[in-house]
Write a structure and sequence with these properties.
The chain has 178 residues and is of the alpha/beta class. It is built from 6 helices and 6 strands; from the N terminus they run E-H-E-H-E-H-E-H-E-E-H-H. The chain has a 6-stranded mixed beta sheet with strand order 2-1-3-6-5-4, sandwiched between helices. Strand 5 and strand 6 (135-140) form a beta hairpin. The longest helix has 15 residues, at 104-118. It starts with 15 loop residues before the first strand and ends in a 7-residue tail after the last helix.
Length: 178
């Protein structure tokens, strides 16, 4: 959503979404990327289920994600931070082992859209998405711009049951099929 774009009408099926910020240098009070995600998800009519900040440590990240994945009332998790290629960036490694299925198209589409905004620097993003125990997980970069791009141009529509021909919300009842 840009400042000139009106917010869409609230979704018909509000989801419970948790937000996890991964950072060695920020606290929640100064977490602009997490704030942007919370503002957007609530603006779309969803509910903030929980919000936490953890250091860039794969085991701390994994523990928080696993806790939320095990809670049946949490429908989706948005993480921000730790997706780069430096030694401390470990969010994709923390999340990927928890996923039952990876949504390959998310990372591909995110990098394509990011390329339009930041050029070849988009190749440094290891954004990903998947499903774990019926919970959607979106692993996003830590920049506020990247979080806005991911939500505004991909996630918002896919977590809205009005998006056709299909969306992730309509698949939720079938995520735990055996």
């Amino acid at each position: 959503m840009t400042d000139s774009t009106p917010a869409p009408a609230p979704v018909r099926t509000p989801l419970n979404i948790a937000v996890l910020t991964v950072s060695d240098s920020r606290e929640l009070a100064e977490d602009r990327s997490g704030d942007a995600l919370v503002e957007r998800l609530e603006g779309a009519g969803h509910r903030l289920a929980d919000r936490q900040l953890v250091k860039d440590d794969i085991y701390a990240i994994r523990a928080e994600l696993a806790r939320w994945i095990a809670e049946p009332e949490i429908d989706a998790v948005l993480t921000t931070g730790g997706t780069g290629i430096t030694g401390r960036d470990g969010t994709p490694e923390a999340a990927s082992v928890l996923l039952d299925k990876t949504i390959e198209g998310f990372g591909e589409l995110f990098r394509m859209l990011s390329y339009e905004e930041i050029g070849t620097s988009s190749l440094q993003s290891r954004a990903l998405s998947g499903v774990a125990n019926g919970t959607y997980i979106f692993v996003l970069p830590g920049s506020t711009g990247a979080c806005r791009t991911a939500w505004d141009r991909i996630i918002q529509a896919q977590l809205d049951d009005r998006t056709m021909p299909c969306n992730l919300t309509m698949l939720m009842p079938r995520l735990k099929e055996t």
